[in-house]
Amino acid sequence: MLRKELRAIVLRPKVFILILAVLFIPLLYSGSFLWAFWDPYGHLDRLPVAVVNEDQGAKLDGEPMHLGDDVVKRLKEKHSFAWHLFTWIISITFMMIVQFLVTVFDNPGRFLAILLLITQLVGSAGTYPIELVPSALQSLHP
To answer: Where is the chain membrane-spanning (predicted)?
Structure first.
């Protein structure tokens, strides 16, 4: 019975091509997935990374110290990542949205800002895995 069905498939070119295409799609997907993760450390120089340095500096025994600048300088010298210092802009934008809500809507704005913060934390999993978030908030997770 199996031979009979295989012969019927091979003799009909449309069915044979369709079956080959259906078999080729998972092969293509798994091959591209494997290629993407084959050498994860080989191209770190093209990996975008963001750093925010808001170090104001301090004085220790009369000497000025800028440890934040030193850390950023050492990280850039290693050339292990492609550096993009844009996280500061993202955080300022979020703070401006919260400030806008509080300024324009007062107490309802505070409530909206808290909802926005909770949604943002749940959407990015925050510091918790999604399984630890209350079930009512799990529906907000993308």
So the answer is: 15-38, 81-104, 111-130
Q: Sort strands 48-49 and 82-83 into parallel, antiparallel or unpaired.
A: parallel
Q: What is the pTM of this model?
A: 0.32
Tell me the C-alpha distance between 20 and 6, whole Å: 13
Helix (H) or strand (E) holding 8: helix 2-11
Q: Which residue's structure tokens are 């529906």?
A: 139
Which residue in the block uniquely carries the two structure tokens 């993009």? 84
Give me the amino acid identity at 75.
Answer: L
pLDDT tens per residue across span 54-84: 777 777 788 888 877 887 787 777 665 555 5
